[in-house]
Amino acid sequence: MATSQRSSSTGIKVVIVGAGFAGLTAAIECHRKGHEVLVLESFPELKILGDIISFAPNSGRIFQRWEGVDAKLDPIIHKSDGLRIKTWKGEDLTKQTWGEEGKKYGKAYNGHRGEIHEIVYYHALEIGIDIRLGHKVDDYFETESEAGVIANGERFTCDAVLAADGVRSKGRTIVLGYEDKPKSSGYAIYRTWFDSAALADDPDTAWMVTNGDRHCCWIGPDIHFIAASVKNGKDFSWVCTHKDEADVEEGWQETGPLSDAMKVLEGWDPVVQKILKATPDPLIDWKLVYRDPLPTWISPKRRIALIGDAAHPFLPTSIQGASQAMEDGATMAVCLSKSGKAHVQEGVAAFEALRYERVRAAQKTGEDTRNMWHKADFDDVKKNPDSMKLKREDWLLNFDAEEYAEKNYAATVALLKDPVAVRQLNVPSRTEVLASTEVAASA
Ligand SMILES: Cc1cc2nc3c(=O)[nH]c(=O)nc-3n(C[C@H](O)[C@H](O)[C@H](O)COP(=O)(O)OP(=O)(O)OC[C@H]3O[C@@H](n4cnc5c(N)ncnc54)[C@H](O)[C@@H]3O)c2cc1C
């Protein structure tokens, strides 16, 4: 249910660096909670960038709280009844249906990253959030009583800074003094998004793009290829995760020739070959890198926090990177309203404590899914095709970040202050608090 109504002013000033999904969610949620928000984004103008992105029900419920946003997102999101899973030769293995999941957990939003981002961006502007484009943050500072950033030579002071500056976060290096070197994961992804007209004309591919949306995954030896149509079949997107030892460059705008993907997918299902033929050249070629988990996401004086990809990048097979970025924003907004202006540092520390273990567990699902698909023994798989279904678990999807933070803030702060005493009082440990499904069940 949309509840965009704003709480009374807390007097807390928050500067947010970056207007991706982490930054915009933090901004909208902080605004809802009555904090004063300023967003600084380095892009000089809004551009519709990217291709397919997924928001699972755990973040879908955040969109639904924002007046009018679900109605704008609904016409542009993928709507199929399920994910067909096939071998690379095209044999049907199983179908994972979404109907029951939707009833159990709520709505997921999968669509074009740039189009969804545009809707959220304009929603933030409509509710009165101050977003300044063309403001690249070059430096951060903090004292016991305030924090801030420097952008375009101007100094912006506030109570708390949220560095939502993405996977190549400068905030991470400046704030934590931590050079976070990416390591090759040995995999890369080809990605693309295009008009489906050519696929509709071919009888072998028409089923993917006519009479509604379709979602299909082909699994082969150490490779998977997932295709989806969107907007009643009008748009089409595919991604292919494959082995790649070439280098560790990463970026959403790095391109690679279609012929490379054709080589990787040689001998695959003729439907896949036809999809490749209809695909415009070049593709986005995104190297998947590993980053070790950061030891902390918050600054020494606890007035600056990393959120979203800046704090915790995700493998795409987790299907959770954007959702966890949104959960960060919703959690931080609650923590600051609970802490109040006089105890912002307590709120920032509680944010990290509330989020850290859940995020680690969600990150881990990305590796598990990739290994499940890429290392599959097809003799075993054919005996138990359902083993290839995505694991859709309660603890991850049946979760409401706002409610969870509301309910667990006080226990978390007590734990941070005096873990021994809290233990004696029989208050659950941080791990137990985070693993609790009490909130999830009531969501
Ligand atoms: C251009 C682009 C295209 C993408 N396409 C896809 C896609 O197709 N599919 C997918 O699943 N994910 C995509 N992503 C990543 C996805 O949006 C994130 O993984 C996820 O949503 C978490 O978002 P985030 O806000 O933490 O990071 P991001 O979405 O990366 O946002 C970070 C923001 O911070 C800004 N920024 C960086 N440094 C500074 C600075 N010094 N000062 C001010 N602002 C700064 C960046 O310009 C960016 O807008 C894309 C990201 C970008 C930036």
From TrEMBL:
Signal peptide range: none
Keyword entries, A-Z: FAD, Flavoprotein, Monooxygenase, Oxidoreductase
Domain of life: Eukaryota
Domain FAD-binding: 13-341
GO terms for MF: FAD binding; monooxygenase activity
Pfam family, one: FAD_binding_3
Family named by the database record: Belongs to the paxM FAD-dependent monooxygenase family.
Protein name in the entry: Related to maackiain detoxification protein 1
Biological source species: Phialocephala subalpina
Organism taxonomic ancestry: Eukaryota, Fungi, Dikarya, Ascomycota, Pezizomycotina
